[in-house]
Amino acid sequence: MDASTNSLNWFEIPATDIQRAKKFYETIFGFSMEEQEMMNMKMAFFPFQAGSGKANGALCKSDFHKPSMEGVVVYLNSNPDLQTVADKIEKAGGKIIMPKTQITPEIGFMAFFTDTEGNRMALHSQK
Q: Where are the beta strands (DSSP E) in the chain?
């Protein structure tokens, strides 16, 4: 792989109730998500700027998507300060399972949470 290429192209967060999951992520991040059905999947897309070269993803409900506390962890960009997002998680129906913690001064901070679907997720920010 070319070193200038993102190692992440796309992510899908499993959902059992796409409306509930969409409301949760829209609430904690303060953005709107567009919905679409394709390939026997219900999807709600995270905001994305075409041609930016950055990875994007969606909430997905299908027979292949099962929410889990195990497996891959997706770190969602919460700059400038993840605490702003973390403070909204429990009010929106999620749960903080590891509060804001410094990784290193250069890398920034992280926190783990569960969403309304039962997925273990993470936040990352520089502050």
A: 10-14, 34-38, 41-45, 56-61, 75-77, 95-104, 108-114, 120-125
Q: Is the peptide bond before 80 cis (omega within 30 degrees of 0)?
A: yes
What predicted TM-score, i.e. pTM, was given to this entire model? 0.89
> What pairing do the DSSP bridges indicate for beta strands 108-114 and 120-125?
antiparallel
For the chain, 127 residues long, give each residue's pLDDT as a single digit of tens.
Answer: 455 566 778 899 999 999 999 999 999 999 999 999 999 999 999 998 877 777 889 999 999 999 999 988 999 999 999 999 999 999 999 999 999 999 999 999 999 999 999 999 999 999 9
Residue 125's CB is within 10 A of a number of other CB atoms, namely: 21
Amino acid letter, 37: E
